[in-house]
Amino acid sequence: MNLKKFLAELKRRKVYSVAVTYAVVGWLLIQVVTQVFPPFEIPNWAERLVILAIIIGFPVALILGWLFDFTRHGIVRTADLSSAARIETSPSPDSTEKSIAVLPFSDLSLAKDHAYFGEGIAEELLGALAKVDGLRVAARRSSFWFKDKEAELREIATKLNVDHVLEGSVRRDGNRVRITAELIDAGDGFTIWSETYEREMHGIFALQDEITRSIVDTLKLKLAISPSPPPRSTDAYDAYLEGLFYSDKSTEPELRKSLEFFQRALEQDPKFSRAWTGIAKAWLWLADAFVPPLEAYPKVRDAAARALQLNDQEGEAHVYLAESKRILDWDLDGAEVEFNRAVEIEPNSTPSNYFIAAFYAARGDRDKALTYLQRTSRIDPASLWVNNFACELYRYFGLYDEAMAAGERALQLDPTFAHYGEPQLAALYREMGRFDDAIALYKKTQDFTGRPGFGLAITYARMNQRKKALQTLEAAIAGWGYRPGDGIAHVHVVLGAYDDAIRELEHACEQRSSSLHGVGIAPEFAPLRSDKRFLSILKKIGLEPEKVFAAAAP
Fold this sequence. Notes:
By secondary structure, the protein is an alpha/beta fold. It contains 26 helices and 8 strands. It has helices at 3-12, 15-36, 44-67, 81-84, 115-129, 140-144, 153-160, 204-218, 234-247, 252-268, 273-286, 293-310, 315-329, 332-345, 350-363, 366-379, 384-396, 400-413, 424-431, 435-449, 454-462, 466-477, 485-494, 498-511, 532-540, 545-551; strands spanning 68-71, 74-77, 98-102, 106-107, 135-137, 164-173, 176-185, 191-200. The strands form 2 sheets. Strands 3, 4, 5, 6, 7 and 8 form a 6-stranded mixed sheet that branches. It has a two-stranded antiparallel sheet with strand order 1-2. The protein is globular and about 105 Å long.
């Protein structure tokens, strides 16, 4: 047994506090009994029985203290350290660092039709707090993952590796809004600040600033931020929040619905830059999965450029402009400038760190890629999207232990990998020769999508089951409309059909596939690294083959 870890676990479960409290209360009770029983001629055996019961109760109290917690929700079983820490991705932060998670605000409206408003207010507060120096804020996907899940505050804080949690509720009644916010110390479960506000909708922007300042003051931090200019219309803001709500979903109908709300916001306020950023975001996530790149990415570029014309401080818009430069123009230097600008403006944003990590990985800048990847994982530890991506990049670099940890976290978060592409853990299993495990995981995803993915075809190819691989590839392509040529090329190169693979890669260039830049570092394409045609393709799309190959897994 590790004594240090055991003592730390005693502290985490508050056994020390229970022991001290019980000892003090027990001693007082003994004093009362010894002083009160004799005058009332209560038999001595009763006095001794009470004292004995208090003594026997001490170890019982310690056991109960180990097993249970008193929380604001009542008595609950203390989460095991192993289960509580399963989704942690980084060591605990420096003791001087303040940290917070903002949970989606509950909708208390009578019709229960303002969930988007509660999530939107929480996301706006999260965005404002993320710009405060000295405060680490868990990202939206991680914080909001706990919505509608039966998770205690301590479990949430442990998984997100934060010291404080902000939660609240909203109630809309016509043009009136009632917002309750509560800041909780995750260590002891006590509320350290709370407030209830009632405002007309036109005062919502000032209210958000007021809540942000109250939190910053409570945490004894300095507020030195310049918030984005608010829209001139509350109707525009309301439509924007509803668009934001749908833009964080993963299906085509919901993403297209977000476009309608963002456009409605711009009709109310044409200078609302964040609505343009929202449009760029929606088209980016529609691209590839639902809309061919050459149709979607020009719309991404146009919307991001319009957002930045109105407000150059839109960090997320810089990300989307960078992606359009990378994909449409193969202008990697121009994309790098935009990515770095995004990180400069929003250093604690998931999109800023996620996309630049992928960018540097594709270029062969291993150290930079890992730096931003680790930052992304720390900001957004409970995101399926982030953990699946981390598994992929770690695998590319040959860091299998790290890849396994990230892939298993992704599997915990959603075993189906619903709407998030293929499970990268399955690809890792394949690289390790665990073909049965890979197939089982790919088929679990197939049960959700109704069609096999490229990964399953690649796995059969690696198992020398050529006929099954080609049948699976055909099924993966059929009925989807746009399918990236580099995805198809993955299967052909593993089958040894190098001419077919090169043909599909050339097709991917014509398509402007967004994943094309990853083929240089992907281990599946290692057999082509000496092929002049492959080298020519990499150079054409802006990569330096020698640099990329040196960074890839051996």
